Amino acid sequence: MEQELELENKPNKTISQDEVLQAALKLFAKKGYFNTSLTDIKDAAGITTSTGISQYFKTKQAIAQALYENILDSLSISIDDIRRRNRKAAEQLREVVDLLFKLTDDAPEIVEFLLFVKSEEFLAEPKPLLETPAFTKIKRIFQNGVKDGEMKALDPLLAYTYFFGIINHTLAMVLSGNLPKTAESYQAQAWLTAWGCIVKK
Known about the structure:
This protein is mainly α.
């Protein structure tokens, strides 16, 4: 059952653990992990009690780790759903790209966290992002695409690098404001360019 924290002098207002995580996510994405303090997170979440965040998390590191695990778990579940719905690698990758571009427009802090926050700053034993279950499943899409003849006979990791180099850099440019329109505005062209690098013609 999700814990809730009563705010001082606000008996009808509660702050959930998820709201603490959301406040932290926005700050980590905007200011970076090292430049965000527990006090910043407490203030952003609207917590005014003396015990504050310690009701849920003992350290800033614990908050960042929980965020990282939650985001990657959700991504992994989404990729499972995508792979169940689509047989071909192209269809699966198209839906992964759809998801990332939609997240960039609707929940940019999630994509900023994935692209810019370094897990080695807060994980005691960091695992490379490419070795997490979510990204292992994405790599498998490339392996299957090469095996089934949809993609060029590239090393699957190289195919991943070519493809997501274009996708991730486009998203990063949108998030930084260097590309001024919504992510959706660039999605079709980014997809065609990325897929064109690896498709077997």
